Amino acid sequence: MHLAEILIHPLKSCRGKLVDSALVEPMGLQHDRRWMLVDDRDGFLTGRAYPRMVLIEVEADATGATFHAPGMDPLRVEAADLRDHQAVPVWNSRFEARVGHDEADFWFSDFLGVNCRLVHIGAETTRRTNRDPSVPVGFADGYPLLLIGTASLAELNSRLATPASIRQFRPNLVVETSVPFIEDSWIHIQVGGVRFENVKPCARCIFTTVDPVTATLHPQQEPLNTLNGYRRTDDGTMFGINLVARSAGLLHVGDVVTPL
Predict the structure, then answer these.
(1) Does pTM top 0.85 for this prediction?
(2) Taking a C-beta distance cutoff of 8 angstroms, is the pair 145, 151 a contact?
(3) Which stretches of the chain score pLDDT less than 70?
(4) Full residue range of the structural domain in which residue 165 is found
(5) CATH number at residue 241
(6) Is 107 exposed, middle or buried (0-12, 13-18, 19+ CB in 10 A)?
């Protein structure tokens, strides 16, 4: 098996960016989900409620990020310019993030049609995963990385009238597999020279029904409706696995993937 794709989502719920290589850090892939939007009611924004977020493209680098959206001028934000701190939530977690970029706040509010603020998280975050308090996590829902096998998507698509895109499931790592859902059985894996642990399957939500190209919701709530029919458990409808990194290193598309 080999690593078929690497995707980074610098802004939570933004369009995924395919990359040829990525550095694995304790918080996940470098630049992944380090930015987020919060509203004036102290809630975090995602594509579940604001599907247009999937149209936002981000180029992240060592000092900040450049944001692009249809009909908007490009926006450059330096992380160092966000000097204020604010407690922000992601589900049951609440932790400090940096805020304070008026131009960015107006830019995102204008594009999405809702008052919101851009926030940034750095390596100093106190947020940790539920299963392992030694593992930091950024603005991801719960864990630093998500992996899906290509055979799992192919099996799902064999049940759908219109195939789903891997982008609808927002993974970081896509592994070329021949057996559907074989990744569910992995406990420890090595990708290139980096080791990972499978901590839990990933429960899916209505966000999977948002078309990543048009930002519209599927009228029959597919592919989630089909997944509900055969991947439903007491803990949710599962597709993909959540990982934590147990070492650091550089990943490349084409790296060998070995279950340990």
Answers:
(1) yes
(2) no
(3) none
(4) 2-8+139-259
(5) 2.40.33.20
(6) buried
